[in-house]
Design a protein that fits this description.
Length: 146
């Protein structure tokens, strides 16, 4: 009789641990889904913002300020005019970590920006849509040249 009692007590403990692990798993999945939905439908500050072609400054060409918002480059769509010199000025106070190593492969650009050396200068001499990203691909965006 004592063995039966011990066996029943052990079964209750195992069932209790199983329930706890199940509840913990459901909580983790719920947290993941909340963040996934938040990032998918985030419209608060328009993460897919765009700078239009009014970024030409005093004959110096096009100047675009690049920063980070909601864990990605902002703006993540940059519109540039074809064959007009462009400068992307990176806000190094906000752009940190791998986001400071910016690559624009179609224009053969790869630059590690830092305080005092935060400008990427080039001439967009190809028309089309081109991607840019950080060195790890965590931050990304596109440049539209027309």
């Amino acid at each position: 009789m004592d063995l039966d009692h011990f066996y029943l007590a052990k079964m209750k403990i195992e069932l209790g641990i199983g329930k706890l692990l199940g509840i913990f798993g459901v909580i983790l999945i719920a947290i993941f889904l909340i963040f996934a939905v938040k990032n998918s439908f985030s419209k608060g500050d328009n993460v897919n913002g765009s700078i239009v072609n009014d970024n030409i400054v005093n004959g110096e060409g096009q100047v675009v300020d690049l920063t980070v918002k909601d864990y990605n480059y902002y703006p993540n769509t940059i519109n540039l005019a074809y064959n007009v010199p462009a400068k992307i000025v990176v806000d190094t106070d906000k752009v940190k970590g791998c986001f400071q190593n910016i690559a624009i492969p179609e224009f053969n650009i790869r630059k590690l920006v830092r305080q005092g050396d935060n400008v990427i200068s080039f001439i967009p001499n190809k028309k089309g849509t081109f991607s840019f990203s950080c060195s790890m691909g965590m931050g990304f965006g596109k440049i539209v040249v027309s």
